[in-house]
Structures are given as C-alpha cells and as structure tokens.
C-alpha cells in the first residue's frame, strides 16, 4: 500500500471523533503521533485534508472527497484480514466472548450447546460487560468478540454487526416498594424515587441531579439491588424471568415501556476472529430462535 494504514486510520478516526486529541484517545496513541501521521498522508496525497485554523480540525473539500476512498481502502483491508484467517483455517485454542446481560438466556444456552459440539477442545471464556467496557476489552485484546446495546458509530478499529434479535427492557421494583402499589406512574413521578442505573467502569458517568441514583456495572447486580428494595430499575425482561420471575420483582406501569433494544456483535479488526470465532459470529447473525 502506498499510504500508511496507520495514517489512513488516523484520518478516519479524526473525522469521526472531531479532533486530533479525541482520535488519539480512541486509538491509544499520542496526539503528536496522530497529527504527524495525517501530515504525512497530506504530503503523500499533495492536498490539505483539514483546515486547522479553527479550534477543531474541519475537513477541506479535498478532505471530504478523500474520506470515502480512505474508508473503502480500510474496509477492503479488513476483509482481506478476515480472508487470511479463514484461509489459514486455524481454530483458536481459546476464545473469549464478552456477554451482555441483554442477551436472551435461551440464545446463550443454544449457542453454548452448539459450540461445545463443534469445538470441544477450544477453551471458551465468558466475560460480562456492557457498552464502553465491551469496546475497551476488545481494543485491549482481552477478548475476541463482544455483545452490546446497538449504537450508530464505533471506533475505526472495531467491527460491528447488527444481530437479528432484540432485548425487551422494562421498569421493575421489589414487591414491597411503594411504586409496586401504584397504578400507572409518570416519568416525573418515577424520578422522585431512587433509580438503580447501569454505569460501566469506563464510562463512570456523573449522575445528573434529576433524582437519587445508585449504580452498578452489570444488569444482574442491579437486579439483585432491585430485589432488595433499594429502588426502581430498567432491566432486560428475559433476565428478570430467568433469575427472579414473579418471586421478588414486579413491573411498574410507565408510559413508553417496555422498550426494545437492538444488539450488536463487535470484534477487533486488528485481531479478527479465527475459525471458532467466525462460526460464533455466523451463528448469532443467523439465529432465529425464541426472542
């Protein structure tokens, strides 16, 4: 390739992130490394890609035209990497998969059963993560595949596939909670009670002052907190049915709920899944079981 893959990636990530510093954080590089890579790409192309006169870099007309070509080059490179893995045909000795509590337990049970039949000698490790934590684990090479609630964009080094399944989320409280005794509850009324909210390790979001909040990095831990009556929580319906059912939790009638959540399967483009990982990806992509 005439142009450095690192420079092409830096260019696309800067556009996606909005600044050299944000791109550097996403790619785990220094800002000077990103700036230098893009400067070299501009020298190779003979055009200026960004107008740097403003606070944040802005694409020039030449940069806008170059962007789609660079994206196509990187996409083709990813396809070639995946083809190389498939041609070699090596099965991983170990596959690490980051699960989201939004995944229906029936799907997981079917997946594990089929995986055991096909790859009995591959060590299968399951991690639990949500949202930004999933992306971080993949970027660090700690896992090969991961599930997360769907979003529109991902870092340039993360591959994504929308799965043909959805997770239903609803509002739950313990039977003894005051909200369980009421009829329909408005969003305004709901906010006057303590919320149990998902808050991942990496995001570490500051809780807005719209009501009292407790947080945890997994839905299963939030479910346990809700069962103990500490507050209300938006939880995956399948998770509640699997681990609590009607024994300890009851749904709160809130307008607009339950809601459906789309799920994406992610992987690190720099370390594409091998034979077993590719099978898992294909299995989930075409899964048509109980939702």
Written account of the structure:
The protein is α/β, with parallel strands linked by helices and 291 residues long. It has 10 helices and 11 strands. The strands form 2 sheets. Strands 3, 4, 5, 6, 7, 8, 9, 10 and 11 form a 9-stranded mixed sheet that branches. The mean pLDDT is 87. It holds the Pfam family LysR_substrate. GO terms for molecular function: DNA-binding transcription factor activity; transcription cis-regulatory region binding. Residues 1-60 form the HTH lysR-type domain. It comes from Phytobacter ursingii.
Topology:
Layout: H1 5-17, H2 20-27, H3 31-45, E1 50-51, E2 58-59, H4 61-88, E3 94-99, H5 105-118, E4 123-128, H6 132-139, E5 145-149, E6 158-174, H7 187-190, E7 195-198, E8 213-216, H8 219-227, E9 232-236, H9 237-243, E10 249-251, E11 259-268, H10 275-285
Parallel strand pairs: 3-4, 3-5, 7-8, 7-9
Antiparallel strand pairs: 1-2, 5-11, 6-9, 6-10, 6-11
């Amino acid at each position: 390739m005439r142009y450095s893959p690192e420079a092409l990636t830096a260019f696309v990530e800067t556009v996606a992130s909005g600044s050299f510093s944000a791109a550097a954080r996403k790619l785990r590089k220094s800002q000077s490394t990103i700036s230098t890579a893009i400067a070299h790409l501009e020298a190779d192309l003979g055009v200026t890609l960004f107008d740097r006169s403003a606070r944040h870099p802005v694409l020039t007309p030449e940069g806008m035209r170059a962007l789609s070509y660079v994206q196509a080059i990187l996409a083709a490179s990813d396809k070639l990497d995946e083809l190389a893995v498939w041609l070699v045909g090596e099965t991983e000795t170990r596959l690490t998969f980051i699960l989201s509590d939004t995944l229906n337990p029936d799907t997981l049970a079917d997946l594990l059963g089929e995986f055991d039949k096909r790859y009995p000698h591959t060590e299968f490790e399951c991690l639990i993560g949500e949202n930004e934590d999933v992306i971080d684990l993949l970027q660090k090479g700690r896992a090969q595949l991961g599930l997360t609630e769907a979003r529109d964009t991902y870092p340039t080094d993360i591959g994504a596939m929308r799965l043909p399944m959805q997770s239903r989320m609803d509002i739950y409280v313990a039977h003894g909670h005051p909200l369980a005794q009421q009829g329909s509850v408005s969003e305004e009324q709901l906010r006057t009670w303590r919320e149990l909210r998902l808050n991942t390790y990496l995001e570490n979001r500051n809780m807005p002052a719209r009501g009292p909040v407790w947080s945890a990095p997994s839905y299963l831990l939030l479910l346990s907190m809700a069962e103990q009556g500490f507050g209300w929580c938006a939880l995956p319906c399948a998770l509640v049915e699997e681990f609590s059912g009607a024994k300890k939790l009851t749904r709160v009638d809130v307008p607009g709920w339950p809601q459906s959540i789309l799920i994406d399967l992610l992987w690190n483009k720099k370390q594409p899944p091998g034979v077993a990982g590719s099978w898992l990806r294909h299995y989930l992509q075409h899964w048509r079981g109980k939702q």
